[in-house]
Design a protein that fits this description.
Elements lengths: L12 H12 L6 H8 L3 H13 L5 E4 L4 E4 L9 E3 L1 H13 L9 H13 L5 E3 L1 H7 L12 H13 L1 E7 L8 E13 L2 E8 L4 E6 L3 E10 L8 H4 L13 E7 L1 H8 L8 E5 L2 E8 L3 H8 L5 E5 L1 H17 L4
Length: 329
Amino acid sequence: MRAKVFPFSRPPMRRMIAIHRLLSSKRTANCRRLAKALEVSSKTIQRDIDFMREQLDLPIEYDPGKRSFVYTKEMGQLPFLAMTEGDLVALLVAEKALEQYRETPFARALEAAFRKITSSLTERITFSWDWISEVYSFRAVGVAKADFRVFRLLNKALLESREVEFDYWKLEAEGATRRRVQPYHLANIEKQWYLFGFDLLREAVRTFALSRIAKPTLLKHRFTRPKGFSVANLLEKSFGVFEAEAAEEIRLRLDPLAARLVGERQWHPSQEIRKVGDRVELSLRIGLSAELERWILGWGAHVEVLRPECLRIAIGNASRRMARLYGEQ
């Protein structure tokens, strides 16, 4: 059931939370002490207490023996949060999006940060978190594993413009190599964290998956981040997370099922979808990459590569290898 919406203004949430915390701690909380702590008048505190007791139905009573307001039963968090409609939508998406990190090393830090955000809001619309959880949810599959200590060290390096060293396993490599990098940017792409930085040995910007970084060291040497560096510009011609050298026209023929599903998403800013006869064609202007090939193969027989010829051959060869795995010659 939705929480009741009150038609008149209320005390700022920040002050209500402070009163709630003091009452929960069982320390002395009378009007004089609260007024001094919150830098308002005693009358304001009394109005706040009346509002919390009468409108929010919180079990607050005055104990003459203790000369303090008290909760007459144990209380956890405040039962309602209230906020503007815009805040509600933004926080709803943020809180539910965090669920994909519940079982990762990031969970504790993300939850603490979210609590800090919500505790500082002033609001007008009330709602119940229980009701929100019943009607909205997010589900993420394949969230990448990452060591939060690695993330924290790289974040510190980014903020302080300091070089780092770490062991890195390339996807096809049998062992790790030691890298020295000037970190430029951390990005979460398709549920995986990546570091974009200048590799000093290779003298070029490289992309590193955090899940394949080990034994990082924060160095004392500082650097100047290039002005105008942009991951968006770096990946402008890319279909995924790795920079593409040159873009070319990719044309794919889609059957009705693929046409419906592909058309529901924006895969790349350059995409164009048009109907040709009884089929639909998708055009993209991007660079060739293993990521693009894997995406096309994921559609199976629903998508056919029309051009370029080298991509058509690559997908055909991969399809034949897959068929042999299942006994097809």
